[in-house]
Please model this.
Amino acid sequence: MGKPTGFLEYTRTDDLTIPVKERVENFNEFHTMLDEDERKIQGARCMDCGVPLCQSALELKGRTTGCPLHNLIPEWNDEIYHGHIRNAAARLLKTNNFPEFTGRVCPALCEKACICGLNDAPVTNRNNELYIIEQAYLNGFIEPRVPKVRSGCTVAVIGSGPAGLAAADQLNHRGHSVTVFERDDRVGGLLMYGIPNMKLDKEVILRRRRLMEEEGVEFRTGVDVGNTVPASEILEKYDAVALCCGSREERSVEISGVEDPLKINGIYNALDFLTGNTKRLLDPDGDNKGFINAKGKNVVIVGGGDTANDCVGTSIRLGCKSVTQLIRRAAPPKVRKESNPWPEWPNIELTDYGQEEAIEIFGSDPRMYESIISELVLKNDKLTAVKVASTTTENGRVVKKEGTEKTLKCELLIFAAGYSGCQTYVPEAFGVNISGKNTVKTIPNTYHTNVDKVFTAGDMHRGQSLVVWAIAEGRECARQIDEYLMGYTNMR
Model:
């Protein structure tokens, strides 16, 4: 696909980024797309490979490489090269409901499996994907597709994250009448409140909501099913239910001698920190009671994943005095090793945008590997510092190394240690079974729970994962719901 010799003639060029000191002055997206001619060159690099592993979603040593949505990547790269954006968008949307989301926040599993990456840099698939969908919107190719015939069946989707939105989109286009229930004030789930605006502009989510509403999907926000609205009411009114509430139970961080750190003034969960800031941006004239200000504070963030990095970038934009990121695990290698060959997921140290910004603003990488908090330092019941110790492993447990403690000034401590599963009140309200991992159990190899008309998808089903996996699960869940309602399905 693309130009047959393109991978030999052209080098990889990523989308441009606004310089650090300029972009940290606001919460705007900071990547700018290449122009049409340069994008065609990037599409031309896609090889005419016999087995395109980019769309394979292979499981290798416990990690996925290749796209879980099985996107038709060589096909739309070829369309980019030939300048056929409408055709490229048609091929892209055939497998991915929301490329405007994945094109911004996906870690590009497709690129990790790209055959170009064996001896050279992989094709810029994620940037190409974003270019296609944004050009499609810009040129009016994305128009409401209202079903011509309705099935007469009704479906309730509980949760409006990527899994819920994908399920709703698929089922609506099939002709079912879909209502999405969201307990927050805006749709999107963690897309809206768990990912900061500089990574995913919230207007992008609102744009998609408007399109889905024009196509017939009904959204009801501020409705907490299983709490303010009983599950029995939903089961009685709808022919099928999809539980897509995500993995929202944040992992606790144990600190010796402290029963509940979150009760201490100055300590917060990452989701509260990120949510409060996003709500402030969206409603600057509101009461902003949940806003947690990092301005002028020494910030310490516990965690080494994407959310922790987002907290770093957010803290810098809010004007923090310093930022440090504590990570329990050892640092991964800086380059691939023979034990981690292509096309396995590259288990190497990556410097993401937040760390990149901290390095330029404060002069050093904020990450401290093999480090844990051993003690909190309080003054008048308010956090003023933390004592940090290096770690070692004993009998499979991470423990602190004695004599390695040092004190870090800290007026704001943020726990970004990930999520331990779903909040159980929703599945309990519907009477569905929960696994030991705090996820909803399903009949093996299906998305159907133990309750007749109730299905589940996304992080609520598989545990904390990626947006691209949530979309894939939402699509497959929708297909099974369609088969349950109609006795057959023609959905893919």
Notes: The longest strand covers residues 382-394. The mean pLDDT is 96. Residues 299 and 323 are 5 Å apart (CA to CA). The chain has 18 helices and 18 strands.
